[in-house]
Amino acid sequence: MSATAPTAGTPALEIHGLEAGYGKIQVLWGIDLTVEAGSFVTVIGANGTGKTTLLRAVSGLVRGVHGSIRAFGQDLHGHSPARIVRAGIGHVPEGRQLFPLMTVAENLASGADYLPGAAREITRSRATVFELFPRLAERQLQLAGTLSGGEQQMLAIGRALMSRPRLLLVDEPSLGLAPSLTKAVFRALAEINRAGVTVVLVEQNVQRSLALADRAFVLENGRIVKQGRGSELLDDPAVREAYLSL
Amino acid sequence: MDPTLVLQGLVSGVLAAGLYALVSVGLALAIGVIGVINFAHGEFFMIGAFLAYQLFVSFGFDPLLSLIFVAPALFVIGAIVYRSTIRYVLEAPELNQMLLTFGLSIIFQNLALLIWGGDPRSISGVPYRSIGVQLGGISIGLVPLGSFVISLVLVLALYVGLARTRLGRAMRAVAQNRVGASLVGLEVDRIYLVAFALSALLAGIGGVMIAVIQSPTPTVGFAFTLKAFAIVVLAGLGNIRGILWASLAVAVSESMVATLVPNGDALRNAVFFAIIFIVLVGRAWRRA
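The joint structure predicted for all components is written out below.
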């Protein structure tokens, strides 16, 4: 995990008036959001409210974005995903986006190979990833496409960690996973955060993600409608009714 | 059937397979990495042939020597074509991409027609053109043998490069998952440019060889585009390893038909169309 201590006071992520979408379809309508360095932040919301688009806008996968996005004080607006990774932002994307015909080891190496700083630390980063996910160490020579869903998710997180990010964006890691695996993945995310990496988690598994979060945001129709400490929102009757069906 | 004739057809086919593989891996690279079906691929081949011809006529360069100039020239031409056209249709429907490359092919052919005219141009003065060995009634020309060896070395170098080098791994990453590749810090657009330029370079080297083997006309490229397509389809899209076998199959069947069937030379083109047809129908049938 990142050895760089977050600069005191500078937020890991500052978003102002963010508008984004695909072609003529606008998805995000003026998002304001600040993530303190070192914190664990969760964004919850129903399907299609723009959670994924929010992460994609930060990591540069969505083009034609309006508004400002700064990470650790650095302006990211309009940069390519490749440059944004270099700024210390890892993204575990929706659908994992692994290289299916490469082995687990090759997928992990790819996470560091093209980033000068990370390439020097490749052995150490790999050891950290294997410590976090011993399963991956056992399957190093297996093709990523033949892994189970849970293992693929671990590999996707592992690959993003290989870039030694200071900020990790994680999109729906629990999607399609058995409850026991979901638990393991969430435990790993908490551990990554404890090691000093700021985590922004987008999830439909509201119960678990709110329990982990220092701060949480509720997204509805492309707007943030509620925010607070994770535990606060977990107790909020409206949130409980809308997302926990309690 | 005359056994010597069969053997001769076999040997000629195997020797031709090298060049076919060289041109096809270039096409497979463009299709596999960038996902663009490039109908102008054979035009890079044709440009390579005419550049070699021109260097021979103007400066007396031996084709082997001219490779040093033609290969980088084709790399640059490929890069320019990618940067100025292909890049803008990456997100467009496949039909638009095909129409674009088809248009490029027509433009290049006509440019060549303007510059060099429609007559076959031959590098007749190369001293080794007519050298060959006779082995029990089978003749093996030095030029086909040399082109086979050079092609094979280049194709194998490409395999090794894709498997072992950082750039090769980057190309495979981009080919397998574009989003994933950009998230690990690869400038996808730059990898595409290099892959396309490399694809043009490989075709151009093949063109230099055809300039010695045959006497090319501006339309020589199109026939090779079709052959390369048959081979890539036979190998399976994106399967670069299958190309060697597919090249062998296409080249040997073509050569066999040309040698054994009366007036078979005219049927050469029918062979690879038949192969495309059988493979596509066969695959569709198996999937159904």
